[in-house]
Amino acid sequence: xNSIPTTALGLAEHGLPVLPLRAxxxxxxxxxxxxxxxxxxxxxxxxxxxxxxxxPCHGWAAATTDPxxxxxxxxxxAWRRARAIGYHPGGAGVTVVDxxxxxxxxxxxxxxxxxxxxxxxxxxxxxxxxxxRSVNGVRPGVDLKSxxxxxxxxxxxxxxxxxxxxxxxxxxxxxxAARPAPRVVTVPAPADGGECRHRTPVYLERGIAMAEQRIxxxxxxxxxxxxxxxxxxxxxxxxxxxxxxAHIGRLFTAAQARGESPRHCADAxxxxxxxxxx
Length: 278
Description:
- The protein is of the alpha+beta class.
- The protein is 36% helix and 13% strand.
- Helix 7 packs across helix 9 (262-275).
């Protein structure tokens, strides 16, 4: 009998956002359109692809503690086939220092304060209390998994959680953070050759301000909100030459303030354009 679904539900009840993983550690798509990655891409995993699904179906963004989501038909089927449990460390308020080989473990024992430790196939996970941005390859064999990332649940491990130390935060600071990258949209001029009504300052400014507000006020489903907002903006202003780099930069900035990465913003924008045939 597969005990993974029962274990996952128990973890979720204790506040750990979980998601089902395949044998190769990849997440399932948890909506019907994305099942078995039939959509062809995993945009929420920062992997470019043709998927235009607006829901948080892939990777860390699918992790949840919501009993209704966990009991949905799509997820019930996925959990039955799951071979491992993934979780979103940042959503649980922790950071995982993923030590991928014995040399990395030896380095951690010399340079990092002790904390809760979980054995992995090739090394160890050192888990600290506190969230931060996730960065891979901060040094040989060492990844940081927290916000916008997922880790494999391998049990509670040993030891006691300690506070996230400055030495771990400093590892991330050495890796350059991705900067917002406003995208230029190439759109056709009005078909009749006249002045576009959207170019009036009040109309366009109101539309961009409302879009910023919609993203800023999102309390859940941020990724889906960003996608739908980008879709609405492009639907109203994307075919007539109204949007400038400055307008798009404002939308990306609002999305990143709510936790979206530059790559997620770029993927959501591209997917919205694709959905509209642009």
